Description:
By secondary structure, the chain is α/β, with parallel strands linked by helices. It has helices spanning 2-27, 55-64, 82-88, 101-111, 127-134, 149-155, 174-181, 201-207, 218-228, 240-249, 262-280; strands at 45-47, 68-70, 74-78, 95-98, 121-124, 162-168, 185-196, 212-215, 234-237, 253-255. Helix 2 (55-64) crosses helix 11.
Amino acid sequence: RDRASVVESREKRMIGFQISVLVRDHVRSRVGLTCQLSSSKWPMVGLTRERGKNDKLAKLLEERGIPYKELPCIEFVDGDDRPQLAGLLREEWDWVIVTSPEAAMVLNEELDKVDSCGEWKVACVGKATADVLRDKGISVSFTPSRATAEDLCKELPDPAGKVLFPASKLASETVSDRLSERGFSVTRINTYSTQPAQWNQEQKKASEAVDIVAVGSPSALRGWIAQTGTVPHTTACIGGTSAKASTREGVEGVFSPENPGVDGWVKSVEDACEHLRTLQEAPSSKKAD
């Protein structure tokens, strides 16, 4: 019986490989995925952003009839440099660069403490981040053609000048390094950070029904792994940074959009769902004698 189980498992992996080859151009997946789906018509999706920040993706999934469970994997805490931000906003800068909705919210909160701001323009990495600022009446002067830090740094208009970069403690040095290479003078301060959220037993039980983990940041993926004790079989990522983190962690099926953002994110979820459903509908392999 044990030998038959091993053979059956190998045959299932082979079927997964063959089907992945057939559909890879459409779903941009990695091969060899053999995750068992929930009993739903659609795979179950786990939403991992902090509580209250999953609403946009959840609405898009509801419109498509895709089931989800909200399982926040991270929570935000103040960064060591946050007390400096209000004072720096009183100074003159050519650009204040904001690369996440969370950094935008911190900026909004600190601006409320400032009586008189210096003159500066705002550059945001993408629409979601810009919307957080615009909702508070802050004008956004620049967003890149694609919502990535690399594109922002390549396309930020000349001339090179002084840049204030309030960021997550966990953010890479991409913005500072790339802009410095172009001649900008960058002052980075770490205004917030993330830490794994703590789950109760009900949440841990709910995670067992999840087929696809929707990943909005590397820290959310790390939080999922910390809480479940396992690397997910499949991730649908908001962009390239989360996709690279998934690959590093050993995720077998990694889906990400060409253009980062919520609209691309839901397309990644759809591609992952289609892939898993294709695997589920594949002819069952016969057990070895």
